[in-house]
From TrEMBL, chains A, B:
Organism: Cocos nucifera (Coconut palm)
Record-level Gene Ontology MF annotations: pyridoxal phosphate binding; transaminase activity
Gene Ontology biological process terms from the UniProt entry: amino acid metabolic process
Residue ranges with Low complexity bias: 41-51
Presence of the UniProt keyword Membrane in the record: yes
Protein name (record): 1-aminocyclopropane-1-carboxylate synthase 8
Membrane-crossing segments per the record: 15-35
């Protein structure tokens, strides 16, 4: 219409409307055809060459003339797609890209980029391999000794997970939390990873324009997992180094009130426990306070506990579910995110968990689960694995020892470099203070050091600014993708950059 | 605030604001505690019993009094969750529920509900079983004869699918389309089923409040898959029995203009080919017209081709991709939905495909794919299966013969009952005309017959109204979950209801 209307003023008189509508369309179409033919050299790409049409199909090359409006460019994509379609310039993703393009290998690519930005645990893959090698020998389909049935693998199954796997996952969660809580399988919704678990839960708890409060520094993936498609915003509530980055209810209160003043509806507070990226735990008292806060504000509480079983320190992990067992709170506002990617080291299996005490959320999430179902053969394999309690006990125990050892080695090595880490208890990372090495003392200085570490030292770590940390100079360093032999390499590479960086300024 | 403000008027004078705010909050909190203690008998559920707190954790039972606002009920869930949380009264879902609760089995539950509402193909599961049984014997992990590696199974892999599986799926798509098209693996995004494929694509093409045009009758799942979370609306463009429910561009044009008048932005037209629920195909000329239409309106064209390989008639299936190979259109507005659930009968594996000619959409969809990734062990299994070209050729050939046979038997049996079906070519269903059996001739009459078939005859079929068919009395009957022996049972049960239904009125 935009094309046609101005021309109606040019073609006046009787028939002006018709001519004013049809003529420009026809002209425009012919012009388009001309330009296309001119620009394309491929013999198969001419729209008007009737001889190339499949035999027997009459084509009227003039059919486009019937269109009341011609196209004026590429069809627009959605604004949510447009905002993610381009390459990301966030350090978190830039670092990943570098690692993908030039991955370090001690033998085959010793000058490649070392990945300390990805929270993946490769310390215990050998245990998984041994178990899988054994089980593969015994798998058999139907028949007399069959332990699998084709209809149990290939046909439609409940989208929110097999009940057998829900039961097995509930048991595993309880196991990694050392029996301090028991989980009810009917409160579990399984999704294809913790990423869709948090997104699905978000879809359930808030509408576009609403917001969640998130103590910062927080996991950079939350911005992506929650904000991209749900239309929900995240509001950081900044924690500080003077408190060891521990959660403080007064900070939450302040962030809540500021949001309210801006007219934003806060629907939930989202915490990670163990904290990602800091690695410290929420103690019982803080959990009580969080529940009080959620109650007082009439909002939800989401506890991301994906590292609950990846504890390397001596402090006790307390699940929000454990607190609810002993205290009388409104449970319907409490939801836990879990998954097998961290504690069982199987991110490739894509198993996430929504554990909710809210029946309406469970009902909606079980329906939304059709958008992120776990492939059934993998579910069956995991049912077998988790049912093997001897293996699971051995795995959890050994994995913990390896985590402890690597954490101690890595933090010690950083210390020798002059880098201190916050004393942490869980997770695959440490939260390292490099503020004394940055000039200027600002996000700019932090990102300059990060860029040198990535491009010169070829070490990918996550800068605090990607985690919405308000103090510059902090970095998340994941150590579970490293071998012990890699640690001196990391330290040596870091040292050169840190020394040069300091000399330079 | 709603609680506080009215009471400020009651507590007048100096200090009225403070007393009016704090007093009701405190009173309300104490009342809540009292009611909770009264209602709960469990000794572990008292909020004020300090003796039950874990040792060493000081708790102030009065801390809640510090809250500036107390909770006034359950925390609200999102409107999108609330709208799906309750049970659905749509016949499409009511029928599923009945089948789940009381499934027919010829031996163990001969009076159970027969499932003709679910488009799942169980005709060739034996072929899958045999292949899986063979492959399971040969699977081995690492080692000398290993064909699997643990890091290739357990660790993070690209969220939008393994490149090996993209290549295999591209080959399979070409195979089931009899080599008429070749597909480029780099245009493929893999998702955990066709359901997240269509949702992800929708997220990419339109924003909340925008709409897609969909020729009706259409697959009832579209309303769920597209509307639930994206905020996009679907506008039916009604096709009619006088045209054999074939797509008509004039109808699309009308629906488009009406939407425009109402101020709605139409972003795409969505077709299924073969049509679901009718089963007829879009011929080449209609595909050209659709492309013209999309071009003229500057909108996208989505072609759902999940049944492309499930052709049981003699007409030739033409993919929109085939037309694009020979014609010069703006490809960037064309997107295909595919999956392995129908043509390979593995819905439990959850493999969906977005095939797009638009680089921006591919880029955004590959990022959104993290919300619906396919579990990697299942991907590896499918890579093996699809690479076995001897098996795939045999499977596709035999499955087609079985489909043809069942379609002919079932449609013939319906005919003997006096029920005619639209002549169809693809899909797992037929589109049956029972309009002469309904009284009144309206949606009400249709749903009365549907309810009797479900509750009396215990046969679940999908009424046309669930598919937005504007003519009453049409039903989608899936025949691929039946065995040949089931057909006489279905017909006998239907006959009793149809005869009684007629006599009754």
């Amino acid at each position: 219409m935009r094309l046609v209307v101005p021309l109606q003023g040019v073609v006046q008189g009787r028939g002006g409307l018709v001519l004013g509508s049809l003529l420009p369309c026809a002209l425009f179409y012919v012009l388009q055809l001309y330009l296309k033919r001119k620009n394309r050299s491929s013999p198969s790409s001419s729209a008007t060459s009737v001889s190339e049409l499949p035999a027997g199909i009459p084509r009227t090359p003039s059919r486009g003339l019937l269109s009341s409006k011609t196209s004026t460019g590429p069809a627009p994509i959605s604004s949510r797609a447009a905002s993610v379609a381009g390459p990301s310039d966030s350090p978190y993703y830039v670092g990943f890209k570098k690692c993908r393009e030039d991955p370090y290998h001690p033998a085959s690519n010793p000058n490649g980029v070392m990945q300390l930005g990805l929270a993946e645990n490769q310390l215990s893959l050998d245990l998984l391999r041994d178990w899988l090698a054994e089980i593969l020998k015994d798998l058999a389909l139907d028949g007399e000794e069959g332990n699998l049935s084709v209809s149990g693998l290939a046909t439609y199954q409940p989208f929110d997970g097999l009940i057998e796997l829900k039961m097995a996952v509930a048991g595993f969660m309880s196991h990694v939390m050392q029996g301090s809580v028991s989980f009810n399988p009917s409160r579990i919704i399984l999704t294809a990873g913790a990423t869709p678990a948090i997104e699905t839960l978000s879809f359930c708890l808030a509408d576009p324009g609403d917001a969640f409060l998130v103590p910062s520094p927080y996991y950079p993936g939350f911005d992506r997992d929650i904000k991209w498609r749900t239309g929900i915003d995240l509001i950081p509530a900044p924690c500080r180094s003077t408190d060891n980055f521990s959660l403080n209810i007064a900070t939450l209160e302040r962030a809540y009130n500021q949001a309210k003043k801006r007219g934003i509806k806060v629907r939930a507070v989202l915490v990670s426990n163990p904290s990602n990226p800091v690695g410290n735990l929420l103690n019982r008292e803080t959990l009580y306070d969080l529940l009080d806060f959620a109650m007082a504000k009439n909002i939800h509480l989401i506890s991301d506990e994906v590292y609950a079983g990846s504890i390397h320190g001596n402090e006790e992990f307390v699940s929000i579910a454990e607190v609810l067992q002993t205290q009388d709170f409104d449970r319907s506002r409490v939801h836990i995110i879990y998954g097998l990617s961290k504690d069982l080291s199987v991110p490739g299996f894509r198993v996430g968990v929504i554990y909710s005490f809210n029946e309406h959320v469970l009902s909606a999430a079980s329906k939304f689960a059709r958008f992120s179902s776990i492939s059934v053969p993998s579910q069956r394999l995991l049912v077998s694995m988790l049912a093997d309690s001897k293996f699971i006990t051995r795995y959890v125990g050994q994995n913990k020892k390896r985590l402890q050892k690597m954490y101690a080695l890595f933090v010690d090595a950083l210390k020798q470099l002059g880098v201190d880490c916050v004393k942490s208890t869980g997770g695959f990372y440490c939260w390292a203070d490099m503020s004394k090495f940055i000039r200027p003392y600002s996000e700019k200085g932090e990102l300059e050091l990060w860029a040198k570490l990535l491009n010169v030292a070829k070490i990918n770590i996550t800068p605090g600014s990607s985690c919405h940390c308000i103090e510059p100079g902090w970095f998340r360093c994941c150590f579970t993708t490293l071998s012990e032999d890699d640690i001196p390499v990391v330290i040596e590479r870091m040292m050169i950059v840190i020394n040069n960086h300091n000399d330079y300024h």
